[in-house]
Amino acid sequence: MTGSAAISDAFYHELASQLPPTLGSTLQKCQGLPSLPAVAMRVLEVASTAEATLTDYATTIEHDPALTARVLSVANSVHYLRASQPPLTCFEATQRLGTDATLATVLSFKLFEQHNGTPSQRLYWQRAFTAAVTASYFAQQHCPEQAGCVFTAALLQDIGMLALQKAFPVDAEHLYGNEGVSHQQVTQAEQRLFGCDHALVGAWLLLKWGVHETLARSVYESHGPLDTDNLADLCIRLSGLVADAWLSPDPSQALALLMRQSNLMKLPEPLALDTLLTYLQQTLPPLSQSLGIPLALGCVNNC
Known about the structure:
Largest sheet: none
Structural class: mainly alpha
Strand content: under 5%
Helix content: 55-70%
Mean pLDDT: 84
Number of helices: 17
Order of helices and strands: HHHHHHHHHHHHHHHHH
Low-confidence stretches: none
Shape: globular
């Protein structure tokens, strides 16, 4: 094994060695772990390429007729129907959706349909899409050349939760289904219950799927501290905090606290949460409706 494949293999074994033995054994034996079909994996590979074009997305998606139909359906939804003529080709559909919404459509179609039955799983997807939209918003301002990769990493930063839900359904449902528990409390509880957190499990799972190491590392480090000079990492880490505030019982108070904390962050431009909130209020409801993701009202009604 050579090149990036060898690096990914080495990183996979590094992460596997960090999994507590009992947890690692349970995950390896679990038959219901989240999985992605080949076409979704190829779309992820496209998304990890900074110079990827809509043509690249469309060409890849067209190999799966059911997925193509789903992308056309979402592009033809009320939110995206900006012209009198509906999209007739996959490329026209991706043009209408844009890269972020196209990727969200692919992953929601291939993963959400498998993992949407419980309150904890619905909460998971609400946080995932809120974080991804937020991360993309930040990245467009501060590191636009990495916006696509940032969106992907933010969308998948908690994928380890889905693996833990399948391996430990009773413990995970109690842990992840409580909307009043903060994400920090969740990771602390994971350490007590499983001996590690979902960021480690998620990165391990992504490498098990065969994704590029860069994406796996972004997920592995997605819950790290905010005092980093890497703007892409900062966008991802901030996105989770904004998503938590948006989904909290008192979004206004949580976001006001985050705004005060954000004043300490060294961004090229000040973090304007009021502008971000307007963006989320305009973007999340129609996106949730188009993708069939249960809407988290958050600040739509409370801010």
